[in-house]
């Protein structure tokens, strides 16, 4: 399985931080928001920086908007093509964070949008 994932990792990188007292649902929310934000940064590359930042924040915010009771912190970077997301379930005291970084594929081949491996997530943008 790891051998089949190698082409996807060259297209985009994804870093996940697991906090003590977190849960899978909260981590999935952070992961999805980070991927949505970095996807927005990459697809709006021809736009001015302030517009790209606003679009990335909106994309990540859309993922988080359906989650009641989630406190969030979003940090996009136009220069680094990264999106960092930290979320906390205030009622349960659990936290999770994720950072997605866009890395263009060297050969521009099309790859599936998202691949889930146990403990890791990578996306092609």
Characterise the protein shown here.
With 125 residues, the chain is of the alpha+beta class. It has helices at 2-11, 24-43, 49-65; strands at residues 12-18, 70-77, 82-89, 94-102, 114-117, 120-123. Strands 1-4-3-2 form a 4-stranded antiparallel beta sheet. Strands 5-6 form a two-stranded antiparallel sheet. A hairpin with a 4-residue loop joins strand 2 and strand 3 (82-89). Helix 2 runs antiparallel to helix 3. The longest helix is centred in the N-terminal third of the chain and has 20 residues, at 24-43. Mean pLDDT is 75; it is low at 1-20 and 110-125.
Descriptive tags:
single chain; alpha+beta; two-stranded antiparallel ribbon; elongated; disordered C terminus
What portion of residues belong to β-strands? 25-35%
Cα shape? elongated
User: How can the largest sheet be summarized?
Assistant: 4 strands, antiparallel
Q: Describe the strand arrangement of the main beta sheet, using strand numbers.
A: 1-4-3-2
Distance between the termini: 21 Å
Low-confidence residue ranges:
1-20, 110-125
**How many strands in all?**
6
Overall structural class, as computed from helix and strand content, comes to alpha+beta
Number of DSSP helical runs: 3
Report the order of strands and helices.
HEHHEEEEE
What is the helix fraction of residues, given as a range?
25-40%
Radius of gyration from CA coordinates: 14 Å
Mean pLDDT: 75
């Amino acid at each position: 399985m790891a051998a089949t994932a190698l082409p996807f990792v060259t297209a985009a990188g994804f870093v996940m931080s697991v906090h003590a007292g977190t849960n899978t649902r909260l981590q999935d929310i952070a992961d999805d928001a980070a991927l949505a934000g970095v996807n927005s940064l990459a697809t709006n590359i021809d736009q001015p920086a302030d517009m790209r930042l606003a679009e990335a924040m909106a994309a990540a915010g859309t993922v988080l908007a359906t989650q009641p009771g989630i406190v969030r912190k979003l940090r996009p970077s136009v220069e680094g093509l990264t999106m960092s997301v930290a979320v906390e379930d205030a009622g349960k005291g659990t936290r999770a964070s994720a950072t997605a970084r866009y890395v263009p594929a060297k050969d521009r081949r099309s790859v599936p949008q998202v691949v889930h491996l146990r403990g890791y997530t990578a996306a092609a943008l």
